C-alpha cells in the first residue's frame, strides 16, 4: 500500500472522519472532530510496514485442514458521504489512495484466493460504512456479527 499524503489526512480531518474518540482507554479523553495525537502517526507507521511487505502464497502441507477466510469490506469510500466535498486532485496523490477514495465496485476475494489457494473465502460487505467507520457504531455490530459467524463455522467444522 502506498503512503497516504498529508492532504488526504487533512481532508478526512475536515470531514470529521478521525474525530469522536470519546472515552476509551489510552486516548486521553479526546472528544470532538480532531484526530487524537496518536492516530496519524499510527496510520503512517502501519502503512510504512505495509508498503515494504510483499506477500507470497501460503502453501499448506498435505492433509492440513481447510482454511476459512472472511474478508470484510466497507461498502463506501471515505468520500461517499452526504454533503462531502470531492477530494480535489493533488500532485501528491498516490495509487494506494484509491483503496479509500474510489467507490468499490467489487466486493469479492480481491487477490486473497491467489495468496491462500484452496481456502474457503467468504466475503462480507458492511453497507454504509467507510474504512475508518467499521469499528464504530452503528457499523461495529454488523462487523462483530460477521466475525462471530466466521468463528462459529471454524469451531463447528474444525477449519483453521
SSE pattern: HHEHHEH
CATH superfamily: Alpha/Beta hydrolase fold, catalytic domain
Average pLDDT works out at: 88
| Tally of domains | 1
Strand order of the largest sheet: 1-2
Unreliable stretches (pLDDT < 50, length at least 5) are 22-32
Tell me what you see in this structure.
- The protein is an alpha+beta fold and 160 residues long.
- Helices cover 32% and strands 9% of the residues.
- It is built from five helices and two strands, in the order ααβααβα.
- The chain has a two-stranded parallel ribbon with strand order 1-2.
- The longest helix is centred in the last third of the chain and has 19 residues, at 139-157.
- The two termini are 27 Å apart.
- 9% of the residues are buried.
- Mean pLDDT is 88; it is low at 22-32.
Provide a compact summary of the structure.
With 160 residues, this protein is an alpha+beta fold. The chain has helices at 6-15, 39-52, 98-101, 112-115, 139-157, and strands at residues 68-74, 120-126.
Amino acid at each position: 500500500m502506498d503512503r497516504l499524503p498529508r492532504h488526504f489526512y487533512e481532508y478526512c480531518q475536515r470531514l470529521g472522519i478521525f474525530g469522536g474518540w470519546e472515552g476509551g482507554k489510552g486516548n486521553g479523553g479526546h472528544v470532538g472532530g480532531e484526530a487524537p495525537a496518536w492516530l496519524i502517526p499510527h496510520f503512517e507507521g502501519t502503512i510504512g510496514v505495509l508498503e515494504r511487505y510483499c506477500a507470497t502464497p501460503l502453501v499448506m502441507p498435505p492433509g492440513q485442514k481447510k482454511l476459512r477466510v472472511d474478508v470484510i469490506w466497507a461498502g463506501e469510500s471515505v468520500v461517499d458521504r452526504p454533503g462531502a466535498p470531492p477530494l480535489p486532485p493533488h500532485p501528491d496523490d498516490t495509487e494506494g489512495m484509491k483503496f479509500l477514495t474510489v467507490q468499490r465496485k467489487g466486493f469479492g476475494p480481491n487477490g486473497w484466493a491467489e495468496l491462500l489457494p484452496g481456502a474457503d473465502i467468504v466475503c462480507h460487505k458492511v453497507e454504509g460504512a467507510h474504512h475508518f467507520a467499521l469499528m464504530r457504531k452503528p457499523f461495529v455490530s454488523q462487523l462483530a456479527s460477521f466475525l462471530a459467524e466466521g468463528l462459529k463455522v471454524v469451531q463447528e467444522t474444525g477449519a483453521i
